[in-house]
């Protein structure tokens, strides 16, 4: 199904949030070709729920896949098999905190996890389509670059507050700009305001208390965001699959203009852009009623793919 770009004004009243049924979470380690172990989580729909496909979740800067459990439960209720993983240097995966071992490492790791997930889905159902991919913030940058560079071939893509089209002058954190000047491997606090994650203060409090979250960033990681995120914008016109871009209108962590540029450069017939005026960076963790609007937008768009 083709979709046209839409106005960022969301008119429908959000439906009541679904009653989420707790799902069993399975965890394991996956090895990359160069021997780095990535922490992987899987969630499956409950027995009896109609199967609709599979979705790979790619997390943002300083966090980890476990923060997406509520979103995974929402997706499994819709019938999607869900996988998420911790980037190298984040969460429970290998690697120095906040550093990338080579410029292409994050994209290479995504390609490895995606291919493994795709193979697992097809092993269960030979006729299954490729998984979708949903990337948030840094994860949105990684997904956008892997997609525009032809490294992954998903059924469709969702980008939430993607850190694409950023410049050192446009990024909100002074430390993030300064990180470009650091010696390789040295990290500093990223300086991004945790109270800009969501209008719900419990979100920032939970992140501060989470032992698997950190605020470190190296020159190599900052350079990836600035360089590869801009390349994703320049190459956006070659994206072959449907894309939903979710933009936080009052983002305090990244410059939302980069996501708007990326969305405008995508093929028009298969792109949907939804902007949420006044919303902060973590759209899936925003205070109500914004979160309900975001989930309704995602639900409706996913239904349109069928």
What does the model show?
Helices cover 31% and strands 17% of the residues. The chain is α/β, with parallel strands linked by helices. It has a single domain (25-304), classed as 3-Layer(aba) Sandwich (Rossmann fold), CATH 3.40.50. An eight-stranded mixed sheet has the order 1-2-4-3-5-6-9-10, sandwiched between helices. It has a two-stranded antiparallel ribbon with strand order 7-8. Strand 1 (25-31) and strand 2 form a beta hairpin. The longest helix has 20 residues, at 105-124.
Beta-strand segment tally: 10
Largest sheet: 8 strands, mixed
- Classify the secondary structure makeup into a structural class: alpha/beta
> What's the CATH topology label?
Rossmann fold
Number of helices: 8
The structural domain count equals 1
Q: What is the end-to-end distance? A: 8 Å
CATH superfamily: Alpha/Beta hydrolase fold, catalytic domain
Give the arrangement of secondary structure elements.
Blueprint: E1 25-31, E2 37-43, E3 53-58, H1 69-77, E4 80-85, H2 105-124, E5 132-136, H3 138-148, E6 157-160, H4 174-178, E7 187-189, H5 201-209, E8 216-218, H6 219-234, E9 243-248, H7 256-265, E10 271-276, H8 290-304
List keywords for this structure.
two-stranded antiparallel sheet; globular; 306 residues; 17% strand; Alpha/beta hydrolase; hydrolase; AB_hydrolase_fold; MAG_DAG_Lipase; hydrolase activity; Rossmann fold; 10 strands; alpha/beta
Give a quick precis of the structure.
The chain has eight helices and ten strands. With 306 residues, the protein is α/β, with parallel strands linked by helices.
């Amino acid at each position: 199904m083709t979709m046209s770009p839409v106005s960022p004004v969301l008119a429908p009243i959000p439906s009541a949030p679904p009653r989420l049924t707790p799902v069993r979470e399975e965890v394991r380690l996956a090895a990359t070709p160069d021997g780095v172990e990535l922490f992987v989580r899987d969630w499956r729909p409950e027995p009896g729920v109609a199967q609709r496909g599979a979705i790979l979740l790619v997390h943002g800067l300083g966090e980890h896949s476990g923060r997406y459990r509520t979103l995974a439960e929402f997706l499994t209720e819709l019938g999607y098999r869900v996988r998420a993983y911790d980037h190298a240097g984040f969460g429970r995966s290998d690697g120095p905190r906040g550093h990338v071992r080579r410029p292409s490492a994050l994209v290479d790791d995504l390609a490895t996890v995606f291919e493994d997930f795709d193979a697992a889905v097809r092993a269960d159902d030979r006729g299954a389509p490729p998984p979708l991919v949903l990337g948030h913030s840094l994860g949105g940058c990684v997904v956008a670059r892997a997609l525009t560079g032809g490294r992954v071939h998903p059924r469709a893509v969702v980008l939430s507050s993607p850190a694409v089209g950023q410049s050192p002058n446009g990024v909100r954190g002074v430390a993030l700009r300064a990180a470009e000047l650091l010696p390789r491997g040295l990290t500093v606090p990223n300086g991004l305001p945790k109270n800009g994650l969501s209008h719900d203060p419990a979100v920032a409090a939970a992140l501060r208390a989470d032992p698997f979250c950190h605020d470190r960033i190296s020159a190599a990681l900052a350079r990836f965001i600035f360089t590869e995120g801009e390349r994703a914008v320049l190459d956006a016109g070659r994206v072959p699959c449907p894309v939903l871009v979710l933009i936080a209108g009052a983002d305090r962590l990244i410059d939302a203009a980069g996501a708007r540029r990326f969305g405008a450069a995508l093929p028009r017939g298969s792109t949907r852009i939804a902007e949420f005026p006044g919303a902060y960076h973590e759209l899936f963790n925003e205070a109500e009623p914004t979160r309900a609007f975001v989930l309704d937008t995602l639900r409706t768009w996913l239904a349109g793919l069928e």
